[in-house]
Amino acid sequence: MSALADPAAGAIAVVAAMRREVAPLIDQLQGRRRLDISGLRGWSGRIARREVVVVVCGVGPQRAAAAAGCLLRARPDLELVVSAGYAGGLAEDLDTGDVVIATAVILDSDSVPCDAGRVAALAAWTGARTAAVVTVARAASTPEAKAALREISGAAVVDMEAFAVGRAASAAGVSFLAIKVVLDGAGETLSLAPAAWPRLARAASLGSRQLFDALMHLLGRGPVRPWWRALGLAVRGIFRLGDERRYAFRYFAEAPAVEGLDDLPPGPKILACNHQSWLDVCLVYAAAPCRVHWVAKAELFGPRLLRWFLKNVGAIPLDRARARSLAAYATVLARGGTVVIFPEGTIPGEEDLPRSAVDPETGLLPGRTGAVRLALETGVPLIPVGISGTGLALPPEAAPHLQQFPLPRRGVRLALRFGAPLDLSPRRDGSENVRQATERLMRSIASLVDPEDIARARQYSRPQPDPLAAPSLVP
């Protein structure tokens, strides 16, 4: 149990401008009662056997300063004060719903540092971004105003209350944290016009849920979804078992043959795999020697149940329609994690992409450059991985768009081979670029796939005179 979750520790106070920002947290308070402190609107109760005080101070730095000062005078026993709520995004790679844990809160030339130990621990638990937060007296609602604040302060988000709360906590000698969730991005205009209300309501609802999850992590509980939480822990546990987990494959497919496992470098790494089937993810989970996070297209995170499952097994969404940075994956690697990427981007034969789109040389789809770019940005090893047999065990035509999911065919040999790290050192003549390195990566992956699988894919890469001439892969 972490120090933050120690029930013997002191009380925690959460200060927010509006009730809706912390409404889910208030609903979780056990033995909830209103604060008996004159001039304050708030509630107290227990979460994970620890006292939690929630104060709604109102919008603006003056109200935040008055509420925080009143609270700290009445409750000198507080161990930690947290400023929580919505904020405007200043960094271009922040989207609505992204959580930022402040390293410091800034007002003009003054700043208040946050508790560094708790910032690092909370960031590791939640995967949230850490950055500075700047406080202003009036909302920065236009892209131009946000860009100016970003240039002056270097902060990632802007709010109106964090500095006032932080200064009061610092003056009282109490530890301080600020947890902010992005309500509007750097390129968006925050509008209160009636036409913008539906979008604003959706953003606020998403922000409240994300903020609630971060606060529950802080209290040592993690995301709470009544019985969903217990089921989520079970799902995560299944994919965090030891090496024997691969034998669970015998229940729905043949146990995979794994080669090159002992030669994998220690520490963070990127596994770049070919993509034949929906079964590929399960095979990598069964064979990888460590906990893995994998890149999943953002479209899969639409259905609520599927989104819940994907987050529990370590998937990180990738919006392929937008040119976004690889910051989320770089964060996982910085913490020593392993990221699984399918450079093909999809499965040949899925998403209305014909099998004939594969490269006749490699038998794979042309690779996307994200895996190479991520390896170059982070400096971690890029490992080519060849997956064999899954295209016959469960071809994409058998489960189009996951509308149905039949059991895999038994008796198919499954194999997974780990190759040597790809050499990404610059060539002497400087002739190789990211695209050429990606082509080398795809050839390396193809060399690790069974020749039978490559030959079958090449057959489909040739023009077929008769649409029914190619043999069906559907079992």
Written overview of the protein:
By secondary structure, this protein is an alpha/beta fold. It has two domains: 12-218, Nucleoside phosphorylase domain (Rossmann fold, 3-Layer(aba) Sandwich); 234-461, Glycerol-3-phosphate (1)-acyltransferase, CATH 3.40.1130. The chain has 14 helices and 17 strands. It has helices at 19-28, 61-74, 116-126, 143-153, 162-172, 197-218, 227-238, 279-287, 304-312, 327-334, 370-378, 390-393, 434-447, 451-461; strands at residues 12-16, 30-34, 42-47, 50-56, 80-89, 99-107, 110-113, 129-135, 157-159, 175-184, 257-259, 269-273, 292-297, 315-318, 338-341, 382-388, 415-418. The chain has a seven-stranded mixed β-sheet, with helices on both faces. Strands 5-9-8-6-10 form a five-stranded mixed β-barrel, surrounded by four helices. A hairpin with a 7-residue loop joins strand 2 and strand 3. It is elongated and about 75 Å long. Mean pLDDT is 79; it is low at 1-8, 224-230, 241-253 and 464-475.
Radius of gyration: 25 Å
CATH hierarchy, class of the largest domain: Alpha Beta
Count all strands and give the number: 17
Could you give the order of strands across the largest sheet?
A: 11-17-16-12-15-13-14
Regions with pLDDT < 50 over 5+ consecutive residues?
1-8, 224-230, 241-253, 464-475
* The CATH topology of the largest domain: Glycerol-3-phosphate (1)-acyltransferase
The CATH architecture designation of the largest domain is 3-Layer(aba) Sandwich
In total, how many domains does the architecture comprise?
2
Instruction: Report the total helices.
Output: 14
Overall body shape: elongated
* Helix and strand composition category: alpha/beta
Helix % is 25-40%
Q: What's the N-to-C terminus distance? A: 49 Å
Quaternary assembly: single chain
